[in-house]
Amino acid sequence: MTCPYARFVEPEDETTSPPTTATSKLTINGSVNNDALAEILSLTGYGTSSSAKPELKRLPSSDELVTYGNYLQLNLLLNSQVLLSAQNDQNKNPVHDEHLFMIIHQTFELWFKQIIWEIDSLRDIFGDDSIDESYMFVSINRLQRCVQIWRLLCDQIIILETMTPLDFMEFRSYLSPASGFQSLQFRLIENKLGLTEKSRVLYNQSSYKNAFPSAHEQKELTNSLEEATLLMVIERWLERTPGLEDTSFNFWERYKRSVVQYIDYLQSNAEDEPNPTAREAALDDVKKTADTFRSFIDEKFHQQLLARSERRMSHKALQGALMIMLYREQPRFQVCYYSSRSLSGVFF
Questions:
Q1: CA 20 to 30 Å from 162, out of 11, 30, 115, 232?
Q2: Interval 89-102: pLDDT, tens
């Protein structure tokens, strides 16, 4: 990778003073310093001994010059707040807080677009049968980015709450029958994450799909349902956790033995409690703990929880997640552990 502060200085007369090497007349922050740049370029493989010349980007010509405004298309972005209260008022006077309401929701949709962008990239990473370890740090970064965006979106509600219900009622009638339930991108995020149909809350006592009548919207929804969800590819990734199939180690049998020993320890301590009331409470806690561990160990019980949508992943994926969590200090599982933690922030 070349130094971002390095650029070529064009010779005043190319016929009389052509560059002699790849580092000829290079600058750092505008000052000629060939020795320093030669050292930098040598680290990137573009030293004086190299015949390759670094491809440093040049500024476009004046008629193609990129500016802050045209790059961000601010002319379109900042003129997309068309207030219905102004359009429908005889004097064309807008309701002041409608501007805030629109900005907040447009911002939501922009961030939804970014979340979809990140989710799609994560599905590509985890969807491969074999994942390059170098991608794991990328996945952690993008998962944490999604989490931070969700937090930011929640914080935006605080800004919206500066508008009182009476302020909202000044322009609410203009918006009927529009509703936030009609956000296509929000539904796409739900589908891409893995929300199931039976886990949804009905919209006007009917399927959420009925809120999107256009053929384009229906196609977007269908595609999101037919593709592998992030939950699916994560499940397959956890099922491939290194060590689960290692019969010489047999993680699952070791885990079950450890659970039995732990429950026996709790049971013994509870039975030794001299106070009858405290003993009864302790024994009840032991039973609850044992039931929780049973839901992990007993595959049939796990399947029942899956059927009731109380669990979302296969029993083998659960084993993989447990192995990663319990052996998170081992080098081979450290990155996987931080990935799984970031995933929990996205799903929960």
A1: 115
A2: 877 899 999 999 99
Judge whether 159 and 100 are in contact, CB under 8 Å.
yes
Chain centroid, CA 144 distance in Å: 6
Q: What is the pLDDT of residues 189-218, one digit of tens each?
A: 999 999 988 888 777 788 899 999 999 999
Cβ neighbours, 10 Å, residue 171: 22
Positive or negative CA dihedral for 205, 208, 212, 216? Answer: negative
pTM, full prediction: 0.77
With a CB cutoff of 8 Å and minimum separation 6, the contacts of 227 are 123, 192
Pair 243, 251: CB distance under 8 Å: yes
Q: Could you report the per-residue pLDDT of 162-183, keeping only the tens digit for each? A: 999 999 999 999 999 999 999 9
In angstroms, the CA 149 to CA 141 distance is: 12
For 6, the 3-state DSSP assignment is strand
Q: For residue 187, how many other CB atoms are within 10 A of its CB?
A: 23
**CATH numbers and ranges of domains, the chain:** 1-58 (no CATH), 84-193+195-228 (1.20.58.480), 234-347 (no CATH)
Helices and strands counted in the chain (H then E): 15, 3
Average pLDDT over residues 31-52: 59
